[in-house]
C-alpha cells in the first residue's frame, strides 16, 4: 500500500476498519445464537437478558456500546463488554490483513477465514466445542479461492493437503498416544479438525510454525485465565492469524540459519 497516495491508503484502511467492526458484530451475534441453540437466520437481534428486540441505534458496532454505557436501553442490565471487544479486535484484524496483502483476492481469502476462526473461537469459549459447520465452511472457502490466488492452484492444492494431513495427522497420533498413557482426553476432535482446516491455507512449514505458536498461546491462556482446562480453538485461531501475517517471513528467516 506504500505506492498509493496517503488519502487513498487512509480511505481503504478506514473502510477495512468499519467492515471489520460490522462483521465482528455479526459474528458475535451468530456465535451467541449457535452456542444457545437459536436459529442463525431467523429472528431479530435481541437483548440476551430481557429478550427485547434491538433497534438500529442499538446495533451500531462499537459506538452503541459506548453511548449506552454498556447497558441495555430497555431493561438497563449490563451488556457484556465482549461485544465491543470483538468488534474492535475484528476491525483491527481487517486493517492488519489489508496492510499486509493490500486490496487483493488473497486479502479477501484471509478476511473470510478470520471471520470463520473468530466465530468458532467464540462458540468454543462458551461451549468447549467447535461446530463442524465452521470447519466445513473453511474447507469450502479454501477450495473456492484456489483459482483466485497468484500461485498455481495445483501447487496450492499439493502444499495445502500436505500441511493439513501432516499437522492434523501428527496431532491425532500424538493425542491418541497421550490419551492411552494418561487415561484422559488431551486434544478434542474439533481441535484436530481445526488444525486440518488451517493447514490447507498455510501449508506444511508455516503449519508447523502455527502449531508451535498455538501451543505457546494455549499455555499463556492457562496462566492468564488460571484454569486447568481451556478451549484450544481460540489459541489455534490466534496462532493462525499471526502465521498468516508473519509466518512466511519467520520460516524464511529460519531456513537462512540452516
Automatic annotation (TrEMBL):
GO biological process, one term: signal peptide processing
PANTHER family: PREPILIN LEADER PEPTIDASE_N-METHYLTRANSFERASE-RELATED, TYPE 4 PREPILIN-LIKE PROTEINS LEADER PEPTIDE-PROCESSING ENZYME
Pfam families cross-referenced by the UniProt entry: A24_N_bact, Peptidase_A24
The protein, known as: Leader peptidase (Prepilin peptidase)/N-methyltransferase
One cellular-component annotation, GO: plasma membrane
Main location: membrane
Keywords, comma-separated and alphabetical: Cell membrane, Membrane, Methyltransferase, Transferase, Transmembrane, Transmembrane helix
Family listed: Belongs to the peptidase A24 family.
Species of origin: Aminicella lysinilytica
Transmembrane regions: 6-27, 83-101, 107-125, 159-178, 198-225, 232-255
Subcellular location(s) per record: Cell membrane
GO molecular function: aspartic-type endopeptidase activity; methyltransferase activity
Topology class, membrane: Multi-pass membrane protein
Annotated Prepilin peptidase A24 N-terminal domain residues: 18-101
Organism domain of life: Bacteria
Residue intervals of the Prepilin type IV endopeptidase peptidase domain: 111-223
